[in-house]
Amino acid sequence: MAFISDAKTFRSNSRLWVFWKRNGRCHSCGLHIRMASTQKLKVLVMGGTRFSGLYLARELALSGHQVVLFNRGRVPMENMKIRGETEEQFQIRMSNTRWIKGDRTRVEEMMQLLGKEPWDAVFDNNGRELSDSKPLIDGLGHSIQHYIYMSSAGVYKDTGLFPHVEGDVTDPQSRHKGKLDTEDYLRQKSDVPFTCIRPTYIYGPRNYNPVEEWFFQRIDQDRPIPIPGHGLHITGLGHVEDLAKAMVLALGNPQAISQTYNIQGRHSVTFDGFAKLCAIAAGKDPNKLKLVHYDPKKAPKDKKMFPFRPNHFFCSCAKAERELNWKESWDLVAGLRDSYENDFLEKKKRNAISMDFSMDDQILEWIKV
């Protein structure tokens, strides 16, 4: 039996799916309608070989979904094994995964490749501008059942009110303007069933953004850690595995349609506190760290100097916990230890980390003066 009430109804392989716009229940009888967790879908993942996309692809494949990755094919398959994964688990995951090689910046070629096949869902993991995602939304939107877009909590306007919640004011001039434009297009100008995910800072093994690694480098070398401001700014981070699980929980969930979800860890942390947690993860005494604070407006400037924006930036994930039944698996200490032991130390062994502290030295000399 299917209930049709304030819903978008779509068919895929003769299956009837009902997506409820409001709260995923039949308003006449209160019956909750949810897609069965045993339903296996054909899912297109844009990217899927580097960091968050890789963990997402693994989570989808291990959930039994048929995963197809669209990327430029630059990462060899043997480099896609994730820490802790046995060869047997890796092969099982790969058996549920295949590739389509292409470049999303070559729109016509991309749509020729992707338009040949039917898709149940699309995870747009690496779209930065509306121009990146609009061809997919317009070209595939008539047939897909769910478009899950990786946005960013960086779209929120800094109003001084924290934590950010999903209904907060956004900043059309933020450096994530392209993601905000894509969200607005999905919400206002398309008929595609969508969900937007807004993570704060993502961390974990394979992180190509030097977030935790920036701290590990200085802790490893017993160097002073220059921190802009007073060190008490609060920021939010989430482990990459927890982000992937949240995205998969949104897939096919009627309650998630037309919704946006913040994702980060349950606890936020000060800059000084994060440095100390990184020390604990590295097996060092946090009380022996030399934390040096400075005025970033007056010090020598380098936009890559510090991994966090020098202000408060953290979110509430209550909505994701409530509607997606999502819970974090990694607290900050365990997650940072995971990153240190399974990423930083491995990179250090093969000399894959640049220990360049020249900017630190400039700031430390400036502080002395």
TrEMBL record:
All copies of domain NAD-dependent epimerase/dehydratase, residue ranges: 43-263
Domain of life from the UniProt record: Eukaryota
GO biological process, alphabetically ordered: monosaccharide metabolic process
GO molecular function: UDP-glucose 4-epimerase activity
Pfam family, one: Epimerase
Signal peptide: none
GO terms for cellular component: cytosol
Stated name of the protein: NAD-dependent epimerase/dehydratase domain-containing protein
